[in-house]
Design brief:
Layout lengths: L1 E4 L5 H16 L5 H9 L1 H11 L6 E6 L5 E9 L11 E8 L8 H10 L4 E6 L3 H9 L3 E8 L4 E7 L2
Antiparallel strand pairs: 1-2, 2-3, 3-4, 5-7, 6-7
Helix pairs in contact: 1-3
């Protein structure tokens, strides 16, 4: 496996991975029309990723398998929830791995490369028990904060230093 910073030129491949992993992870957790809409707006999503991968935006790392397949990504940046809530300054904004790579260490390797042992927080979709268990093994704990949108309800998990 190889982990490397994402580049603007990776936007299309990253978009396709992001669409795939959402369908793999959330098929039973979100309305089907949400996943259909995401596929239908692929071109817009590629453009969005190009902007996010520009210098100065969040940091995104990609994981490639030995055969050159893109198998996962992690994105981090300054916490969007603000220091007024007593949160760490670092947010893990995304961590996704293809289902075919579950249990292979890709998720752990991405998390380690993205945040190391730093204090940080993240939001996880309710019902995503696999992700919750993974984050708990890495020292994250739910802090009781919740939010909802058209995709579903999420709860915040925090890892302190």
């Amino acid at each position: 496996m190889r982990i490397a910073p994402a580049r603007v030129e990776d936007a299309a491949a990253l978009t396709d991975l992001h669409l795939d992993v959402w369908e793999e992870a959330y098929a039973r957790l979100v309305p089907a029309d949400v996943l259909t809409e995401r596929r239908a707006t692929r071109a817009d999503r590629v453009d969005r990723w190009r902007g996010l991968l520009s210098p100065g935006a969040m940091e995104t790392l990609l994981a490639w398998s030995e055969d050159g397949t893109l198998v996962g990504f992690a994105s981090t940046g300054p916490g969007r929830d603000g220091p007024h809530e007593g949160l760490p300054g670092l947010e893990l904004m995304a961590l996704y791995v293809r289902a075919s790579a579950y249990g292979t260490g890709v998720g752990h390797a991405l998390l380690t490369a993205a945040v190391g042992t730093s204090a940080c927080y993240l939001w996880v979709l309710d019902g995503n028990d696999r992700a919750v268990a993974f984050y708990e093994r890495q020292g994250f704990r739910s802090d009781g904060a919740r939010r909802s949108d058209d995709v579903g309800s999420e709860h915040r998990m925090v890892r302190r230093a």
